[in-house]
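Complex 606.
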Amino acid sequence: MPDGVAALRPSPPTELWCDALALAGHGTLLHRGEHPVWADATLAEQLGCTLSALYDRPFHALDDANSAERLRQQGEACLAGRDAAPVDITTGQPPCAVRHFEVRARRLEDAAGPQVLHVFIERTNAAPTHDPSTRAVLDQIIRELPIAAFILDTEHRVTHWNMACERISGITAPRLIGTRDPWRAFFDAPRPVMADMILDHADADTLERLYPGSWQRSTHTPDAIEAEGFYPSLGESGRWIYFLAAPLRGADGSIIGAIETLQDITERKTAENALALTNERLEAIVADRTRELAEANARLAEDIDQRETAEQELLKRYIELTELNCQLHDAQEQLVQSEKLASIGQLAAGVAHEINNPIGYVLSNITSLGGYLDDLLRLFDSFEALEAGRAPDDPALLAVQKLKQEVDFDFLKEDLPALLRESEEGASRVRKIVADLKDFSHADQTQEWVWANIVKGIESTLNVVNNEVKYKASVARHYAEIPAIQCMPSQLNQVFMNLLVNAAHAIEAPGTITITTSQPDAEHVRVSIADTGCGIPEAVKARIFEPFFTTKGVGKGTGLGLSLSYGIVQNHHGRIDIDSTPGEGTTFHVTLPIQQPDAERTPAAD
Ligand SMILES: Nc1ncnc2c1ncn2[C@@H]1O[C@H](COP(=O)(O)OP(=O)(O)OP(=O)(O)O)[C@@H](O)[C@H]1O
Ligand SMILES: [Mg+2]
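Predicted structure with magnesium ion bound:
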């Protein structure tokens, strides 16, 4: 054929040559780069159009765009004097007849310039376009491919069974090539293999029946199917194989065969199985451990619960102990205080008793002395009347007058009654102190318990001390409704009196004394006396209940008021508490039981 084309050179083609080419079945086309300047009827028939249509369009106008582009490039290269290799083109579209051509090109020169002659050599029914050597190379590639592969043609005959396939299946190529028995490699009885099903366009049901649960359409290779399975007949003890079967298509897209590749995945599968086994064991171990952990956690939670309960119990005990300790401390303090007071009380009682008698007869003697003195003075008056009747130079009179001057009789007369009065006052005061001491030491325990309204007592006491208070402070009364209490009212009045007088003394005018009554609980009442006075420093506070402790000047305070009050309140089974801030003021709280525990239940006094 190429010789025929070469013979055209250098003259333009003649109808004879064209006829000759047509006779050989080759269409011809001559052009100068655009529309054909010559085309023959054979070509028109080959391209499926009329001859005139061929002349009406560019030389490379083909219905297949790739083919058209190849033809254009070949034509233009040839026209430009470059090498123009033969190109393959396709005409027609499936499902209509598709035809394949090899197009050769040759550059010709005539008077009008260069032109190109294309000869269309039909290859439609020819063997693959590859020349035999190419085919041999392909066969060799497939044969020596490291991946096991075999190929079936459209008749399901084995065309290729490569060496890797021989190794994996143990069946040599000559035994299978040309047969329809590729199943022999894998199965005991005839049945379709994957490649057969590609050729048969097997549906999903058929695939599922033959490869239950182990097949799927390939996500990588179009129209391919993949599957995996265990084949006991392969190798010594069976092999796991992964199959991939795909259609082989001709240039027109039609299926011209099917290729199936096989991959030995036994090792992977063994590893996977081992892994699965290990996983199973691990999961079992983890489950065991989790159970043990859960049990340990439960035990721990129980422990924690127990410990928390124990801690709470401990805390409760600690709080109780702390409270007990505080109570003990209070009790101890009270005990110390009361013991101190009791011993001082005994001392006071002793001293009072010792002083009581002498001061009694001193007072009575002073009273007698007063009477005697009056008598004596009266006697002196009558002596002085006698003196008036005597001669001024009477020696006896002169001696008396001299003696009178010596003893300063006039002053004596004047001073003696004053001395006696002062002595009587002093002795009376001593007697008052002795009485207070006796009260403090409860030497006089004859009083009886009566029910009394203590507000009434406070009010009468206020009247008594009014003189002490009124110049210093105004009195604010906050009286809550409180019940009558069982008490010794005159003793309590002494307590209120001392607290009120102390409050007044503490205040630098003008200030306020606030009296509050309240009922802290069902069994007690409380009287609080607050002042806006100087307050009590801590050091002083520790000592104020001691008898004779006073910060007041000599003659102003005996220091017995609070100790006496303390004794009275204690005798009433009550207590005295102090809130004091130096510079701001002091509050004394007197808390008393409504009913005396050891007194007989007697009706309220008023
Ligand atoms: N309301 C108060 N404000 C400041 N200090 C006070 C108050 N009440 C008592 N005191 C202090 O307590 C001391 C003792 O008081 P207490 O009543 O026992 O004795 P006194 O008042 O000094 O003397 P007496 O009461 O015998 O006349 C007082 O000297 C004073 O220092
Ligand atoms: Mg006082």
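The first strand starts at residue 27 and ends at 31.
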